[in-house]
Amino acid sequence: MSGEGDWQGSVTIRLEGGRWGLLGTDQRGRDIAALFTAGIRVSLLVGIFATLLATILGTSLGLAAGYAGGWVDSIIMRVVDLLLSIPLLPILMALAALWGKGLWQLILILSVFSWMGTARTIRALTLTLRDAPYIEGLRGLGARTGYILRRHLLPETLPVLLATMTLGVPGAILSEAGLSFLGLSDPRVISWGRMLHEAQSFGAFTAGAWWMLLPPGLGIALLCLVFLDLGKYLEERVDPRLRGGGPS
After folding, report:
1. What are the distances in angstroms from CA 105 to CA 97, 173, 176, 184?
2. Considering the chain, what percentage of its residues have pLDDT values greater than 70?
3. Which pTM value belongs to this model?
4. How far is 246 from 243, CA to CA, in rounded Å?
């Protein structure tokens, strides 16, 4: 062997995909615990903002339909019936492919197809309030429609809206996870659905790489259960009859 001489230094060998770390590593050698933590932010961001936008849209249209009545009510309710009759997942897949896979595009798509239940709930509540004596008195005094909606009808719907919005967050989280699992999300954004998609592409299901599957799957389930329990609690606070207390 030529070129003999003393050599000093160190050699570091890194084995990608090993099970080191709190939750192990994925096929690319990334710490699953760090990916799991980043996925919490994305799931909460999508769930809260998509539900918030859907609640604003549904509340506005529900108040308009319930208070105005007539052809305004008919048009809005026919749009609601039409959107409810369309299969959600194929539409979300098509729009995600057309509009792009960005995080905010996904939030907008989810909000556009999630406002119908809120609109129906607010419309029904508005129908019960618009003929109340104090509303009739306000109209008799010449109060504007915008003033009545903003200062009297909207505050009456806030408790119901809070419970409805809390119950809507799990649906948005599951929809985002489903689209990400199908590969219809931004690959640069780490989410729990994206983690499951990459694990499935790697073959984690058949290889038995449970440390790649359980953290995001359990995270989605537990986060949805937290919001469902919170929404149920808020519903009981709004309506005591749900906890067996009878009418107040």
Report:
1. 10, 15, 11, 11
2. 87
3. 0.77
4. 8
